[in-house]
């Protein structure tokens, strides 16, 4: 049974708290309030193919990630590559022929249903959220909705993690992170995506880094990400090629 | 604008023949939606059209509009919170507001729609068996009720949009709805990101950026989403895109 209220509250709390423990808190929230045996998050890079297991609620979930990265195939890799959710009702079903090597190896884990959600925002591709359970059977609508919310929360906290790795990370004044995510479905707004594209062109980076920088600027100034995006679109705020932010009066017409 | 009856019938036939041709080919769902919105303008004498689909998190997202003007996109997106599309989505029934000035159901949406010069709005559900996956939104600058004939055509166009999502390439039988809806939403996000990249590099408006990508995709027989992804990933030379698009418009270049 899905407890949507508890799920959303615990996800928002995890996003709000932030920090290195946030991804695991999101996995735990999903494992507790959705009917899942375990949940894991992995980061991947479309550029260099790097794979990094971030966290898992239990050894089975960790093992499922591990196997796929070792064997080079499986629902996580397919979801990351295709950008689609990959929902496997029963990995032990003999007719499941998409990943023969992984499927054979996965039998040892006892997992049956596997449900992977891409952590993507358009061309910004960050990783996957993958869930398993030890009974076969698909997800119902409420379970899918819950898992999509958990994936949204995971994108949000992984952006912070990526932002901390980029140069001149924004100083954190803290504050609105969880609410921004919870109230506004902030990462669905067109201006956020448009501003990501502009920053990418200014800074010469990837969509993922550009989005992480936008998120970092919002966090540092305690403002919603949509407002910061509007400043970028109005050319009031831009990224120098060296990665520093510049506020300036626009010399080009605003992009509206 | 009124088309003579015979001309309109001809246009209807041509439109649905073209849509059927597209649906059996390798089409781009966002490009097709954009064309559908243009068809609404041509066939239904409406002034603006948009298409919203569920993000499966109890909200609607704009995936296409008859023009990419930012204010129009915002007006459609406002309906994630309130408005005819959200009501249409929740009730799976057509919603009609032929006289916005007398409308009381959605004060915030109505105020913005009137501010942008619209006087009437209609929403038609995108239905699939027992499910509703989105809505088509039609705006008029004059207060007007649509005729049963126009509503029939509108609903048929909405049904084509539903079919287009479900038959987009890569569909498997199971789980297709979640995957297809997410794929359509992702396409839209990639296109918005690419608009930003082109807008910055070429110092052009975002609606212009969209038109250039769509024209190029059609001219080179690429899917709009693939082209937009190339712009964002850096695998497509945007200088060429920006330059050649300009020379298309100004043969002297």
What does this structure look like?
Chain A: Keywords: Transcription, Transcription regulation. Chain A: It holds the Pfam family GAF_2. Chain A: InterPro entries: ANTAR, GAF, GAF-like_dom_sf, WH-like_DNA-bd_sf. Chain A: It comes from Actinomycetospora straminea. Chain A: This is GAF domain-containing protein. The complex is a heterodimer of chains A (256) and B (253). Helix content of chain A is 49%, strand content 16%. Chain A has 256 residues and is an alpha+beta fold. Chain A has 2 domains: 162 residues, Beta-Lactamase (2-Layer Sandwich); 71 residues, Arc Repressor Mutant, subunit A (Orthogonal Bundle). In chain A, helix 9 packs across helix 10. Chain A is elongated and about 65 Å long. About 4% of the residues of chain A have low confidence. With 253 residues, chain B is an alpha+beta fold. Chain B folds into 2 domains: 165 residues, Beta-Lactamase, CATH 3.30.450; 63 residues. Helices cover 57% and strands 14% of the residues of chain B. In chain B, strand 1 and strand 2 form a beta hairpin. In chain B, helix 2 runs antiparallel to helix 6. The radius of gyration of chain B is 18 Å and the shape is globular. At the A-B interface, strand 4, helix 6 and helix 8 of A face helix 3, helix 7 and helix 9 of B.
Q: Approximately what portion of the residues of chain B adopt beta-strand conformation?
A: 5-15%
CATH superfamily of the largest domain in chain B: GAF domain
Query: Can you give the helix content of chain B as a percent range?
Result: 55-70%
| Low-confidence spans of chain A | 167-175
Q: In CATH's first tier, which class of the largest domain in chain B applies?
A: Alpha Beta
Helix-strand pattern of chain B: HHEEHHEHEEHHHHH
Q: Can you count the helices of chain B? A: 10
Indicate the CATH class of the largest domain in chain A: Alpha Beta
Q: What name does CATH use for the topology of the largest domain in chain A? A: Beta-Lactamase
In angstroms, what is the radius of gyration of chain A? 19 Å
* CATH topology grouping of the largest domain in chain B: Beta-Lactamase
Count of helix runs of chain A: 10
Binned strand content of chain A: 15-25%
Number of strands of chain A: 7
Strand order of the largest sheet of chain B: 2-1-5-4-3
The CATH architecture designation of the largest domain in chain B is 2-Layer Sandwich
Structurally, the number of domains of chain A stands at 2
């Amino acid at each position: 049974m899905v407890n949507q209220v508890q799920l959303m509250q615990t996800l928002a709390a995890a996003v709000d708290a932030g920090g290195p423990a946030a991804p695991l808190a999101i996995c735990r929230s999903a494992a507790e309030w959705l009917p899942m045996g375990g949940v894991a998050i992995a980061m991947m890079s479309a550029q260099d193919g790097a794979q990094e297991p971030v966290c898992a609620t239990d050894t089975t979930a960790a093992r499922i990630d591990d196997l796929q990265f070792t064997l080079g195939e499986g629902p996580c890799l397919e979801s990351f590559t295709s950008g689609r959710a990959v929902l496997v009702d029963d990995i032990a079903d003999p007719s499941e022929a998409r990943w023969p090597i992984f499927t054979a190896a996965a039998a040892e884990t006892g997992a049956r249903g596997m449900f992977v959600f891409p952590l993507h925002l358009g061309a910004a591709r960050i990783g996957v959220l993958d869930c398993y359970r030890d009974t076969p059977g698909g997800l119902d609508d409420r379970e899918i909705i819950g898992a999509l919310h958990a994936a949204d929360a995971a994108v949000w906290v992984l952006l912070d993690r990526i932002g901390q790795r980029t140069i001149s990370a924004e100083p954190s004044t803290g504050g609105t992170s969880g609410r921004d995510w919870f109230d506004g479905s902030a990462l669905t707004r067109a201006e956020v995506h448009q501003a990501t594209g502009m920053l990418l062109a200014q800074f010469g980076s990837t969509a993922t880094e550009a989005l992480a920088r936008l998120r970092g600027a919002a966090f540092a100034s305690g403002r919603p990400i949509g407002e910061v995006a509007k400043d970028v679109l109005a050319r009031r705020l831009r990224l120098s090629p060296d990665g520093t932010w510049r506020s300036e009066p626009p010399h080009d017409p605003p992009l509206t | 604008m009124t088309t003579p009856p015979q001309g309109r019938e001809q246009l209807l036939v041509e439109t649905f023949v073209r849509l059927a041709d597209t649906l059996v080919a390798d089409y781009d769902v966002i490009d097709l939606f954009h064309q559908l919105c243009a068809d609404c303008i041509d066939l239904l004498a409406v002034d603006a059209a948009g298409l919203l689909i569920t993000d499966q998190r109890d909200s609607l997202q704009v995936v296409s509009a008859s023009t990419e003007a930012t204010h129009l996109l915002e007006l459609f997106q406002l309906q994630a919170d309130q408005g005819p599309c959200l009501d249409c989505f929740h009730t799976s029934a057509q919603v009609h507001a032929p006289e916005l000035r007398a409308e009381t159901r959605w004060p915030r949406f109505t105020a913005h729609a009137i501010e942008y010069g619209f006087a009437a709005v209609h929403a038609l559900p995108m239905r699939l068996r027992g499910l509703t996956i989105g809505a088509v939104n039609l705006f008029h600058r004059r207060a007007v009720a649509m005729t049963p004939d126009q509503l029939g055509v509108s609903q048929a166009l909405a049904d084509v949009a539903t079919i287009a999502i479900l038959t987009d390439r890569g569909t498997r039988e199971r789980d297709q709805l979640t995957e297809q809806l997410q794929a359509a939403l992702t396409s839209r996000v990639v296109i918005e990101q690419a608009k930003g990249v082109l807008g910055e590099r070429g110092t052009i408006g975002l609606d212009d950026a969209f038109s250039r990508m769509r024209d190029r995709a059609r001219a080179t027989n690429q899917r709009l989403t693939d082209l937009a992804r190339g712009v964002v990933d850096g695998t497509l030379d945007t200088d060429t895109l920006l330059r050649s698009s300009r020379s298309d418009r100004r043969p002297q270049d």
